[in-house]
Structures are given as structure tokens and as C-alpha cells.
DNA sequence: TTGAAAGCGATACCAA
DNA sequence: TTGGTATCGCTTTCAA
């Protein structure tokens, strides 16, 4: 019984060694033919190696390559919640750009728990990813912040690249979302439409994104003579939006003309709450959101919001981490107020 | 200048070797203390190693572990489109279950291109993932099907596990979605509500999911005396739904009482098209979808659909691949018709 | 150009 | 129990 007899039922994947033997060349030559950078390999040998690889259905072991080369082809992405359109759109951008660079994306969800986030970063560091992208929103004054930062610093000092998607330029590179300016511009536009009396339904205090949007909105109102009469702070999710709005209604809307939701999923939840209370969003009380997720075109009435090009944000986050620091566009992402029927002109 | 002098500014991550030296034990002992399965290590040594690891901020190199152990802790997930809620919900389930098993998920998007899918499978095979989960829908009679199957067979024969999310039990393990039965049940319920004249807006012929839902729906109608008078087959996406519905309206609705969309994102697009045409969904023409993505509770009127527990499907897909074949629940996922206001009782 | 051999960072067998 | 060392699959010097 020869080696060939068992070859078809071998249980382990073909190794480069197998390919080299099959092609009758050395390991080094096989390596150079298949993966080598500057290929200085006799064409005939090269062909033999390629044929052997095809015959054996060879697929290079990325782990082994990583160990030998000292670097991986992996990008790690951390989001709060994969099923949330805000994050899934961004993730789609990251994956698309990674694909262009022939990089592989590993994805994890913090579930909005900063301790989990820290754990995940530690675990993912074991992968030695080329890049770590942190998109879950920051928590102001969180006890885990320092440890997280230390962990990321360590990662960087080992040659890893870090990119945040964030509202502020912190100690790390970040794709900056100008939440404040966006919300302020929105507020001005709403004032321009004739609204004066507002409420806000937004996430818990400390969630940076929520805080900045609220601050911006408030600033815009003050500049224009509007008043922010009520604020509720449920969870930063669709159900949070529903609950927050319900609470507002139960306590009495009391002249509130427009409710600003901290993000679009909350706004969508809020609209359902309004409807379930027997009122009509846009008519009885106007609603505005933030993000411009795809869904908001399809709710009734379509939602006024601040557009963030989420897919592009994801792509930029990866570019930011990959490119030379000076070749990188660090300017804040362009946001844009999109007025729709959920905020009709008043009077 | 001693070794210690540069230690803090070392640029490479600490290795197990470093830890062992720092702790004054052998490589083997360090390995056993940190990652070993059956730890038979002197407690004092163990503590020394742990301390050294902490001091050096050691994080085991997963690639090196993978090559030494001959197996990874990776799960590869293939979806059609990460930003589509159908897939992102499923992905969330996979990631959650993977997290419980301390597995890492790498994610890729086929963008509904079977050739890309094949390429991705080839690339991902290089990772030697423990599991590959294929969730992008199958195409009947696609020229790449055979190559894909061969690739997956090879992966399996190398010890990898494959799990499909699929409508039919094929040659691989699959979490089965009973699209046919679900659509049929939906049709019966709609007949029960008094509807008789239907149209369908669904994906291109050959998309298995679309075909099966359509077939099931048709069967349910026939059993109940309804007629499927028109079928349009745009893209299997939100915009496809919008376009398809627009086409239907332009050609003249002509007595059509209800439009069945092949999935919820299409249904949501269709509802917007109805509204943009000056009609009212649910009133002028009823709409039903399939999947029960979160959004459909928040559109107006809320959408009648067939519920698939998408998160659970994701979790089950991973379990299916991980568990012993006989410990696994291969029964089709439970689907359920959810009647909402988009299909009010007629007459 | 080619091949032998020394790593890469871990695991695990085998003596001691 | 502990430590020495072969090994995993691949890359990359270094001679030839």
C-alpha cells in the first residue's frame, strides 16, 4: 500500500509540505510560488506547484502564516448590538472595505456593557488583529474606561491600530461624528418650521452620543428661542423610545409640539407609542430622530432626522486604521438634516 | 544596559517564553498554568506564572495556539447582506451563542453573488474555522453550486462542521425554515379574513427562499379558493419591493385585494410605494410579508407576516454545527402567522 | 533561482 | 509535577 492509496481519504488538510512533495520541489519554492511576495521562481516550477496545490485542494493555513509572518489579516470590530441597524450598517461598511483589502472581519457585541467590552478587547487582542474598530458608544466616567484605554494602548504599542467611531477626538484615532453640530442644526431647522415647545427622549446620562446630541439640540433651541420642556432618559433602543414616549404621554403632553428622540430607532418606537395612545405622529405631536437608518423612510409619516452616512463611516473607520496617519481624512463626517413629514411646518 | 531596561518599551507582545522567564519556570509549566487543560501544577508556581503574565500583560497568541493545537476557536458566518435585518438578527444570534462557547465569529457578506460566496468559502477555509455557517439563500440551478458543495465537502472531510440556514434539508446539516408551510398557513388565514384576489411581489426565480414561499402561498390560496392573479419578481430587497409594487400599481391593481411580499423588507418597501401612489396600505390594498423583522411593528399599518425567530435560528445554527449529531434538534424552526392591521378583515 | 534550516509562539509527549 | 524538546504549518534568511 503506497502513500497514494490513502491520499483521497486523508483527513487532515493538505499542507504546503504535501504540495511541495507532490510538485517535487522544496518547501521554500512551494511557498514562494504560492504566496511569495517578490516571486523569483522558475515558471515551470511555479506551474508544477500550482497544479499540485489545485490537485490537493490546498488552502494555506492562515494561522500558520500569521505565526510565521508575525502578522495577521484580521480586523476586529466591536459594536454594541449587531441587530441594531445603526451598527449593522456600519458593520456592512467595515466588511466591504475589509474585503477590498482582503482582510477578514471578526465581530463581537458588547451588548452595551462596558465590562463585556473590556473582556472582548482582551480576548480579541489574542487574535493579533491588524486593526481594532470600536464602535460601541462611550460612557462618560465609566469605571472601565481606564482599563480599556490601557488595553488599547498596549495593543497599539504592539503595532496594532485602533480606530474609534466616536463623537469626540480622544486619545485614539476616531471617525468623528459631529453629533452636537448635527443636533444643533436640526433644532434650528425645527425652529424655522415654527416649533417652539420641545421634549426629548434620549438614552441614559453618560452615553456620550446621547449626551452630545441632547446638548447640541438644546443649544440650537436656545439660539432660536425654543424651550426644551421635558427630558426622559429610557434605554437607547427602540423599546426605550416606546417607553419614554409612553411616559411622556401619560404624564401629559401639555403643549409639547415636538419630541426629539436621541436616535432613529428610539424615534420609531416613539411614533408607535404615539399611535398606540390614539394620537397621530406628525399631526398631534411631531417627531424627529437622528441617524437616518433605512427604516425611517418607510414609517408613517416619514421621519425627520439627521443623516449620518453609516456605511461610509464603517469604511472610513477601517481606512483610518489602515492608512498612513497623514494620508487620512480626520475631518468629521458630514451630517445633514433631512426634513420629512414627521415635522410638518407649523401654523 | 540590561534586558530589563528595554522591557517597558518592547514593541512585540509578550510571549509565553517571556512569561516563563519572568516567573522562573519552564515554558511547559507556564503553558500549563495559563491554558492547560488538566492543570497539574504546583499552586505556588501557578501563582508566579499568573503574576508574571499579568505583569507583562500577556495575551496568548491565538494563531500560535491554533497551529500548535491543530484547531481554532473560530466560527465563520456567511450572510448575503449584513445590513439587512433578516441577516443581522440571525448574526446576532450566532454571535451570542458563539460568545457563550468562547468562540470568535468572523463574518463575510456574499452580496447575493454566488461566485463571491464561493470565493469567500475558499478564503475562509484558510482560517480553519471550527464551523462554517452559510445563511445566504440558495440559488436553484446555479452554476457555482457544485463547486461550493465540493468545497464544503472538503472542509468537512478535514474535520470542519458546516451548517446551513435553509429551506430544505440538503446534503449538509441545516436549520430548516419551513417557508412553504409558513406561507401556506398565511394564505389560509388571509382567505379566512375574506381575501380572494391576490398578487405577489417576490424575488427572482431561482432564489430558493422566494420560490418556496411563493409555492406555499399559492398552495394555500388554491386550497381556499383564492386566486393569485399577478406575480412580479424584482430584487429580494426593500427597493425591490418598492419597485415591484410600483409596477403593479402602474399596470393597474384591477381588483387585487392583497399583495404578498416575499419578505418583510420587500413588504415595507411595497407599503411605501402604495402610499407614494396616493393609496393607503391596508385600506386600498392589503399587504402581508414574511420574517417578522422588528421594523414591521412600527410601520403603518403594522404588517401581517409570518414570524421566524431569527435570533434563535442563528443560535441553533451554531448549536447544530457544534453538538453531536444525535443531540441535535433538526426539526424545522417553528413559524407562526402574525395577523396585524395591514390585512384587516374584509367585508 | 533553489533548498536547507532556523525561526514564529504555542502545545504536548516523554523522561526524569 | 516539572522541564526538555519535538512538533504544528508556514516564512524567510543564508549558502550553495
UniProtKB/TrEMBL annotation, chains A, B:
GO MF term set: DNA-binding transcription factor activity; transcription cis-regulatory region binding
Classification via InterPro entries? HTH_LacI (IPR000843), LacI/GalR-like_sensor (IPR046335), Lambda_DNA-bd_dom_sf (IPR010982), Peripla_BP_I (IPR028082)
Q: Where is the HTH lacI-type domain?
A: 14-69
Keyword Transcription present in the record's keywords: the answer is yes
UniProt-listed SMART domains: HTH_LACI (SM00354)
Stored Pfam families: LacI, Peripla_BP_3
Q: Which UniProt keywords apply?
A: DNA-binding, Transcription, Transcription regulation
PANTHER family with a match to the protein in the record: HTH-TYPE TRANSCRIPTIONAL REGULATOR GALS (PTHR30146:SF109), LACI-RELATED TRANSCRIPTIONAL REPRESSOR (PTHR30146)
This chain belongs to which protein, by name? LacI family DNA-binding transcriptional regulator
Q: Which organism is it from?
A: Agromyces bracchium
Q: What is the lineage of its organism?
A: Bacteria, Bacillati, Actinomycetota, Actinomycetes, Micrococcales
Amino acid at each position: 500500500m503506497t502513500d497514494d492509496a490513502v491520499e483521497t481519504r486523508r483527513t487532515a488538510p493538505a499542507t504546503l509540505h504535501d504540495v511541495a512533495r507532490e510538485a517535487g520541489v522544496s518547501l521554500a519554492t512551494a511557498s514562494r510560488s504560492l504566496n511569495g511576495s517578490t516571486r523569483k521562481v522558475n515558471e515551470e516550477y511555479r506551474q508544477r506547484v500550482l497544479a499540485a496545490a489545485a490537485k490537493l485542494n490546498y488552502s494555506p493555513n492562515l494561522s500558520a502564516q500569521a505565526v510565521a509572518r508575525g502578522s495577521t489579516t484580521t480586523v476586529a470590530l466591536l459594536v454594541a448590538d449587531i441587530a441594531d441597524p445603526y451598527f449593522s450598517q456600519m458593520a456592512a461598511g467595515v466588511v466591504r472595505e475589509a474585503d477590498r483589502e482582503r482582510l477578514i472581519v471578526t465581530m463581537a457585541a458588547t451588548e452595551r456593557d462596558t465590562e463585556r467590552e473590556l473582556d472582548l478587547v482582551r480576548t480579541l487582542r489574542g487574535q493579533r488583529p491588524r486593526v481594532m474598530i470600536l464602535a460601541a458608544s462611550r460612557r462618560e466616567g465609566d469605571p472601565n474606561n481606564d482599563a480599556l484605554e490601557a488595553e488599547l494602548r498596549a495593543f497599539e504599542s504592539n503595532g496594532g491600530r485602533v480606530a474609534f467611531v466616536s463623537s469626540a477626538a480622544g486619545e485614539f484615532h476616531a471617525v468623528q461624528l459631529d453629533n452636537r453640530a448635527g443636533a444643533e442644526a436640526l433644532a434650528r431647522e425645527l425652529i424655522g418650521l415654527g416649533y417652539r415647545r420641545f421634549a426629548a427622549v434620549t438614552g441614559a446620562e453618560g452615553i456620550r452620543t446621547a449626551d452630545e446630541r441632547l446638548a447640541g439640540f438644546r443649544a440650537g433651541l436656545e439660539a432660536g428661542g425654543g424651550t426644551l420642556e421635558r427630558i426622559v432618559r429610557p434605554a437607547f433602543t427602540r423599546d426605550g423610545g416606546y417607553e419614554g414616549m409612553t411616559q411622556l404621554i401619560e404624564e401629559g403632553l401639555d403643549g409639547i409640539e415636538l419630541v426629539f428622540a436621541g436616535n432613529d430607532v428610539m424615534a420609531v418606537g416613539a411614533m408607535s407609542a404615539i399611535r398606540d395612545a390614539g394620537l397621530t405622529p406628525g399631526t398631534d405631536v411631531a417627531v424627529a430622530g437622528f441617524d437616518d437608518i433605512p427604516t425611517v423612510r418607510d414609517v408613517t409619516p416619514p421621519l425627520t432626522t439627521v443623516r449620518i452616512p453609516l456605511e461610509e463611516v464603517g469604511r472610513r473607520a477601517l481606512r483610518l486604521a489602515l492608512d498612513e496617519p497623514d494620508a487620512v481624512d480626520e475631518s468629521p463626517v458630514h451630517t445633514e438634516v433631512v426634513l420629512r413629514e414627521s415635522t410638518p411646518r407649523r401654523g
